[in-house]
Design a protein that fits this description.
alpha+beta, 6-stranded antiparallel sheet
Length: 659
Amino acid sequence: MKKVAVIGLDTVKEKLISELMEAGVMQITDQGQRLTEEETWKDLGVKDGDDNKVTSLDAQINRVSLALETLEKYSTAKSPLFKTRRAMKKAEFTKTLEGREQIYGDIDHILGLNDQIHKLRELVNKKNADLSAINPWVIYDLPLEIDETRYTNINLGVVPSTVDVEKLTMRVSEGREAVELREIDRDRDLIYLVVITMKDDQEAVMTILKQYGYTPTPFKDFVGTAAVNRERIIKEIQETESRCSQVEKEISTLYKMKYGIECVYDQLVIERDREKVKGRLLKTKRTFNLEGWVPEPAMEVVDKMLTEYQCCFAYRDPEEGDEVPVLTQNNSVVYPFESITEMYSLPDYKGVDPTKYFAFFYAMFFGIMLSDAGYGIVIALACFIVLRKFALEGMTYKMIKMFFYCGLSTILWGALFGGWFGDFFQVAAKVIFGKEITIPALWFNPIDDPTRLLIWSLVFGVIHIFLGMAIKAGMLIKEGKWLDAVFDVFSWYLVILGAAMWLGGSSISEALVKPGMYMAIAGAAILLLTGGRNKKGFGKVIGGFSSLYDITSYLSDILSYARLLALGLATGVIAQVVNLMGSLAGGGIAGALVLLFAFIIGHTFNLAINALGAFVHSSRLQYIEFFGKFYEDGGEEFDPFRKNTKYVRLTNDTDGGKK
């Protein structure tokens, strides 16, 4: 990665920015801080860009986005399993945008219909509130607009359900002959009352009622009885909902407009990003200054572009304190496994990209843990179909392609272990045809010999850890720390290999025992004598013991690989139990149907739960046991200035339009 500084004439700035966006190979950095940190720039230049224009474009983008969301919401079209960008040639994209004014008219129409729906729904909500308010008064048979006669007042209201209506009636009737209090309805919270009083008693009766929590229920603008109004409101709700449904159907018929609107959305994003990036530049009256990061393989493209526009430019290597972006570069087989690295954290710029080192082990560990060739075929075939049918990009593509490779690994290890949907074909042959068949494992069956798989799991674990240690040694040697590589890394090779030969070598050959002992002792001696070399005082003495104590950490890491045995056995045992349950109904058509049912349900569950387990634990072995030996994370992803479209993939851009 190289840092490039560019100074050019303001007359070519717009064209150069467009060209840089087309190329998509430079991450332009923000120069704003130079105005405050560098005295030269305080009087020389100002920050470029137009924030008001960016804000205006953002507002337009939001409006177009709302139109697209409205179309999606009311569309009757079936949503695809994976949403991908639509491949489109640049000429076709430009031609579509020639009808931009018409598309803006379509957007206005869609948003107008959307506003209609919101207003109609607000009206429905208001009517439902009116309906809820009037429902308890249905049996009240006086017109709601009548609230008084010549001599009386008619009051409708509510009191809490805890009020004793009889006592309340007695209280308001004391000393008054003409007071009528009648309960119309009640629910869990309220009692609905009609209170008729003489006009002279109105104020006194209301004072008493308020002491009991009375609240008036006015029905302003309601004409006729509660029952009549209820029927009217129900009818109005139905009519409004019908109008709302008609508008929704009208929007669904406009779905074909989506493709043109998507083009406008992406064009607005391009224009916004092009304007926004200017805010990272500095300018004087006639010139501009930009800086950015360029990958070394792309320098030739950038050189040609800057030379064409007669810019003055210079490259430099990253310096201490620079925030250098990280661009990982791997071959097509390793590339999908970058998703595992990205889920953890990208490597530091000065660190090592671990993807090419762990990709093989990740697929291998996944296959051992799932350990069934039938499941591997299902995973690989499903991923293959998805990759063929959908133009996936980014993380989704990486994950699906990675699982495809993991499926192939599972087929291999399943065949080696003799697992084909457990022992389904053997069981099916016996249940359906009454015949005994065998499908031998190409290597061995872990259910019959779990100790053997445990030993091999630990061996694979040691190799995996040794690779991580080797990468660490390589990093130290690259930094010129040869002694650190010998004392802190290679000494552990002697200890671990020596201990393994000393303690377990007799099972292979007695000749391995004594050399193993000497190797282990030599490695331990190196650790004891050199472990405190970088410490002071008493630390130099005890530092060696501290280093040697790390044997517990290494032992823990190696034993972690026993999970390969645990998950591999779990998959095989559950598969066999599913097949056994399916065979309990015996032979014949009924037995075959039961076996088939158990096969579909049981193996789907087993595949899902153990594939998830294999994914999680394979990742864990990389993150904890492998990365822990050397990995330096914290890198920021290289984010070049390019056409960051959401809906359309311009297929003839320089990068193929792919993200």
